Structure formats: C-alpha cells, structure tokens
Sequence to fold (443 residues):
Amino acid sequence: MLVAAVVVLAGCSGDTDAPGEVPGSDAPAGVDFPVFAPVLDGAQAQSSTVSADRVSSDYGDGLTLVQLAEPGDDLCAALADVRLADDTCDASAGSVTTSMEEMGGVGIVRDGTLLYWGGLVTEADAQLVDRATRALREAPPATGDDLGEVTGATASPTGPTGDPTQTEPAVDEALAPDDLDVATAVATIRFLAGEVGPREATSAAYDRAARWVGRRFTRLGYDVDLRPVDAPAGESWGVAVPAGRSVNVVATPTGFDPTEPHLVVGAHLDTVPQAPGAEDNASGVGVLLAAAEAAAVRSTRLPVVFVAFGAEEPRGPGDDNHHFGSRAYVAALGPAERRAVRAMVSLDRVGVGARVPVGSAGRSDPVQRSLLAAGRQAGVATVADPEQQSSDHWSFVREGLPGARLGSTPYAGYHDAGDVPSVVSPAQLERTGRLLLAWLAPR
Ligand SMILES: [Zn+2]
Fold:
C-alpha cells in the first residue's frame, strides 16, 4: 500500500529537471530527511523511503506521511493526479501552489485516505508538523470507500492554525507572552539570511524576500499591501548602489480602519549589499512574523499593523539618506491616520545579547517606558538605550509620532559577510518576542 502510493505520487511529477535554484530538488542527498519523519500523533516513524527526491514515512496501522509535490508544483494538480482532490481542491480559497521556498507539499494518508495536506517549510517548521498532527488527531476515521476529504490547510479561511477540522478560532482570547513561537523567527532567519542572502533594497533578492514575507502574512490571515518605495542611487556601507524601487510589505488585520487608534510594529527587510543580514535584520523580521502569527488569532490592546520596511540601510550620510521605507510610510499618512498611530516599535537587530535594548530617540519617552514595563511584566531583562535614532522608529519620531526601538546590541559580523544565522541566539529572539507580545497584549 505504502509502496504503491509512493510510486504513484513520484510518478505524477515526471519532472526530474526542476529549476536549479530550488535547493535539493535535483538530488536526493539534498533532502533534509528527518523533517519528513516527524513524530505524528505520538507515533514514531517505523520506516522511511526516499524515492528520487520524494520521501515517505510509514507509521504503521495504515498511516503514512508522503511528499505530494515539489516546490513550484500546483498542489491541486498533483492531488488530482492521484484522484484525491477532484472536487475539493479549491484554488479560489487561496494559494495552493507550493512556493519555491518550501520543500514541497506533504500529506498524511491513513488507509488510503488523505487526511491532511499542506506546505512544509524548510527543515524545521515544527509548527506545520504540529498542525498536521492536530488535524490527524481530529480527523474522522476513514471509511473504506472514502477517497478522502481534502482541505486546503494552508489556504484555509479558518485562520493561521490552518486546522481544517477546527472552527473559527476564538479571536477574543487575549494575547500573552507565552503565545510566541520562536521557531517561526528562527525559520525566517534561516530562509532570509541562509537562502536569499544579501538583499539590497532595490535588488531582485529583496523583491523575492518581500514577496515571501507578503505570502507569510497572507497565510496568517492578514490583508497585505506591497507599497513601492523609491530609493536613490548612492553608497551603502562602501558599496555603490543604484537608484531603484524597493517595497514596504504592510499587513493589516481584516476590517482595519487606519483612522482608528492602532499600533505599528516594523522591521526592515533590506540589508547592506555585502551582508546576508541574519542579525541585521532577518532577526527583526523573524520576530515580526512570530508576533503577527501570535496576534492573528488573539486580541490585542489596539489593532496592530505589521510592516516589513524596505530601504532602511543607508545610501549616503545623514538622516535623509536612509530609512526610505519608513519615511515613505509616514509621509503617506493623512492627518487622521497620523493621529491614529498611538505607537510604533521598530525591531532592529534583536537576536544578539542577553538583555533587550529598549531605545528612545531622545533621553526617554512614553513608548520606551511602556516597553520597559512590558519587559518587567514578561520577566525579560532589558537595558535602556537613549538617543537611539538609527532605525525606522526615527522616521516616526522626527515627524512627531510616538516611536521606539527594540534591539541594537553590537556584534561581530555587523554589515559584513559574517552576519550569518549562527550569530543569532534563539533565546534572545524569544526575549524580544515575549516582551513585544506583553506590550501588544490587552491591559
Ligand atoms: Zn538594521
């Protein structure tokens, strides 16, 4: 049964010449095998098989986890080929194409019935495995002639849990520091710094990163707006950079009204040309996505806008030659929208050190004090960082809006090729994220 399924699934691809840019797509050795043998519903895999670059794991009792599609494949098409999804794979419900950043679609099959399918991202997306496990636990028992109800977990309108068997999550559950899943931040850093690499604000790599972040927000249930940002030619950390277009990725909750009081949390997504930017600033984007994930299904004290800013890094000396994305964001706000921004926090270099720097543009300000209080509440060690104007919060403060910064601990590898994922500490990401969630939580 298992062997047959693998043969059919492997056969429906027929494409062994996948684009070379897909890591591991052309060589079995490139597959991070243990990923595909997670503990499912408390059960360990009894055996696993690699067929070409496809993987399946057998858990006994008719239960298998199989790789259904390669990165870039259309999952509906892949499922239709094995007669599991003719009627129920609904492209209009959202994206069902496995993204190039994903290892591929995976499915859990029990007694020939597909119980779950979804994307499995990079090598350690524990959360998606958890979702699959939960879906498996709650799935109705398979009946003999049932071809299986296929529900698009990643495209599900039921919210970021992606759990097709769960009803609408209780949005009135209050956000709390424990809701942070640091694995989301770690996976983000591995992808942005480990796979995309340097992403100067106007480069194709930046554009790829921005679209990836946009898809992440969309899957969490946010409305996403990619807003162009003009960046001038100049010199960034000693390297000539061209004039071009960058982009702010703006995620808002459903029904958001920008003239009503709200909070803005931002992190710059660009890097200087020579750095893969794990700490500066995939770390900030990682905590941004982890916070957005936690906030998506829980209540916060005010609605929250999450922004990945383009073109933060300098393209010349002085205030007017950096922070282009955040300055464009502020410049586009009308009077009522400006009044509605109750506070902005910039996450910038938040994965190094043992205490969380809490920066204020001047000596001290109310946003900084509220962040320091949130740190005490979350049990997170902090250090005040006054006169801090080197990040996107400054674009808000200099225009009279309230803003502060988390992060800035010095480290080796700053703005050079050594800014790789290993410089970032998950414990510090967790401290920063917990502090942020305490700050966003209802009072
Ligand atoms: Zn930075």
